[in-house]
Amino acid sequence: MTTSAYQKLEAKFRRQMAIEQASSILHWDAATMMPAGSSEGRGEQLSVLAVLAHETLTGSETADLLDEAEEATFELDDWQAANLKEMRRQWLHANAVPSELVEKMAKASNDCEIQWRQARAASDFSAVKDQMQRVLDLTIESGKAKAEAFNKSVYDALLDQYEPDGSVATIEALFSDLQSWLPKLIGDAIEKQESQPAPLPLDGDFSIENQKSLGEALMNTVGFDFNKGRLDVSAHPFCGGVPDDVRITTRYSEDDFTSALMGVLHETGHAMYEANLPSEWRYQPVGSSRGMSVHESQSLLVEMQVCRGENFLSYLAPKAKEVFHGKGNGWTGENLSQLYTKVERGFIRVEADEATYPAHVILRFELEKAMIEGDLTLSELPTAWNDRMEQLLGVTPPNDGLGCLQDIHWYSGAWGYFPTYTLGAMTAAQLFGAAKTQKAEIPSALRNGDFAPLMTWLKENVHSKASSQSSDEIVKQATGSSLTTEVFKKHLIDRYLA
Amino acid sequence: MTTSAYQKLEAKFRRQMAIEQASSILHWDAATMMPAGSSEGRGEQLSVLAVLAHETLTGSETADLLDEAEEATFELDDWQAANLKEMRRQWLHANAVPSELVEKMAKASNDCEIQWRQARAASDFSAVKDQMQRVLDLTIESGKAKAEAFNKSVYDALLDQYEPDGSVATIEALFSDLQSWLPKLIGDAIEKQESQPAPLPLDGDFSIENQKSLGEALMNTVGFDFNKGRLDVSAHPFCGGVPDDVRITTRYSEDDFTSALMGVLHETGHAMYEANLPSEWRYQPVGSSRGMSVHESQSLLVEMQVCRGENFLSYLAPKAKEVFHGKGNGWTGENLSQLYTKVERGFIRVEADEATYPAHVILRFELEKAMIEGDLTLSELPTAWNDRMEQLLGVTPPNDGLGCLQDIHWYSGAWGYFPTYTLGAMTAAQLFGAAKTQKAEIPSALRNGDFAPLMTWLKENVHSKASSQSSDEIVKQATGSSLTTEVFKKHLIDRYLA
After folding, report:
1. Closest Cα of chain B to A35: distance in Å?
2. What is this structure's pTM?
3. Over the stretch B336-389, which tens digit does the pLDDT of each residue have?
4. Relative orientation angle of helices A357-372 and A419-438, to the nearest 10 degrees
5. Is B267 marked active-site?
6. Is the ipTM of this complex over 0.95?
7. Domains (ranges, CATH) in chain A?
8. Which residues contact residue B372 at a Cβ distance below 8 angstroms, ignoring those fewer than 6 apart?
């Protein structure tokens, strides 16, 4: 029996995925365990692994095998055909851009990121503007090459790196709908909260030990398997590792447990997705998680839809009170709910609540699109940012550190990423809505700390699909329709105005 | 300017070394951090990285470049020439053996190792004999291929994997000298110790926290840089990681701190060697540590020569008493010395003291050489082992679990490794002797917990040489003569009979 082109590709990608997995663990180690003085050597290791993974894709043999396999798709079952499609996507992304440009981009982003840290600390946009211009120019050059390869617009081609098959058209339709009702909803929510008595402060022993103990207990509750994963500490929380060894991180503040706890639950949502990906496709492109919007939907479903909801908070309150040796009357589901769902017009995206968060994202999406398309210069950026903040949220940042310098994305070369946050939030609402409709026992189970019915539904309808379908197909099959703002709107109204 | 063949080889080996470094951190992670359920995926990652590192060496381009570079050694300085020599050695090891044989060997060793764990637990050699025969047969096949490539005997070719340029002739001369006086020395030492009052037991709080705190303090004392390394826990202590990120491990028992503490100091000796390798040759074969005998000499110099000596123990006693909140009169240098230098005729190598240890190694060296050369069959092994134990140490293991099943080496395919332990012990004695002669301040510095004079000497005379010279050349330059048993003998007499 001869080995088909498709089978040869599977062998190649299996190797590439194993290299990526090795890199992923080394990245986790760098963020959690590695001593500070070892970063140079780690950089060398990771850059060699990146080159090796890239070479798997860019060799001429891979191109020939892809052509050959695409001539013989009749031999493939659905998953194999989807796998071949994802192989081609990865190949297009890797081969559209000449390697010199990839190198230039890596260097420019690295330089800019270093400069950005200083510029942000000094709230001085002019200090990083030239470096940012360089990153933007190279991003556009790279985006144009990808646009040609994919036969898409430049922005859509950049977006495809994070959100496969995503499009400006879809996003603009959704975001424009959001914009039509969100500002009023925010105003109404704040007004309502102000008319109510302030939540009671929480009193207890929020030692890191206690926080970790509660965090791990709740990870268990959600379904996290500690036989195939860990919880550690890092400066910037993330979900890393690999599907069979998911490594999530958090950071603790001894003054306040809420941020670390909700952070842990958020990352656990990501982790459940990774862990439930189909193991039989572990080392193939089709076995990977779908784009960033689906990934973010899983973390936000657990954190925002479930864990900041009163059902879960009623379950949490006595548990948390016990772990923290809590005193006072604040340890009730209702009071936790008030604390955990406060709406505020702030400057900083990562500190924003779920009602104001979309405004932050819409602003970034509009501005990055305009910059990519040449409709906004970097000189105009700070003013455009502040003007739009005023329009969308009614606040004007007092300086660029609280404005256009706050996020790393543009400075590190991640253009086209921002919209996935809000697509994720809306997808989370729509999936959770469908889950509750299809499985009526979910809300009462959550009230008892039983995530099994929800997780079973998510595994079946989302996690196990991996990349065998597009985000849109997954959402449509799971919920009966493509993504709309409808369920997200209903969720916000129910939680903040009811 | 054209790139020379030598320069191209440097680029290739730089990549290969970075892959090996990545693997090393992943191995550390597997032993310390990885959850149990993730071992299958880690195996996949490591095996792909091993294949990639191996491919760097086995491609036809590498062979051509080596030939070409060896034609133009006049262009190279001493370090480059030594680097080229080490490249050729690695190439010979990698290319002498056909890849099917490498794969068969990996599988056979893996199967045998699994079976061995059960056989050892059951003290049943017959349960693993067939698997061991398979490993031995493949080891001989592989050894014959290497023997031809290196123009050496089979055993010398296997030895070269662990001890480059080592030879049976040298080892037999040293070991036969050892045998002529060691049995009597052991008897005399035991007799002397039995004639003295028993050491006082140590009383204190040996919590893991306290042990770790003392271990880290002493690592600092020796010179370990925590900005480029860590101390963690694993089932089997080791020194891993990479020179710029040395990861040592230990295991704690709350009943007794001595074993973990001396283990930490032992691994710190290894770590200092790695950390002091010349950073300008970090990613080249010549920049790696010399063979296992030099490596073991560094750990044994710190542990056996220095830290079990009375100078250091006098420094340690009050420190340890304080950390452990020690009570009673046992916390003196003299009493610790009695506890830390007890000679006993035991069955188990890894529990043996420095006086009886060489007997364990001589036995294994003789038997493995006989098996490789076809002079001893596996059916004869258990009896041969027990007979030789009786002759060398005067004890007969009551079962094979305490006899020929105790060590993993033969079952996992590491033939030719054992003699390096005792070569290391003798090298440690000879180096420490020379250091004290050349730098008279070393003993008094150690009495004050100051390792700087010793470490400066070791860095200059051993660590910084890396693989630019042979073990023999390093020892000769540092001590004025090739390795002999003389200083080791003097050390044992001074410590145990004086």
Report:
1. 5
2. 0.94
3. 999 999 999 999 999 999 999 999 999 999 999 999 999 999 999 999 999 999
4. 140
5. yes
6. no
7. 5-129 (no CATH), 130-498 (1.10.1370.30)
8. B136, B139, B140, B143, B154, B155, B158, B415
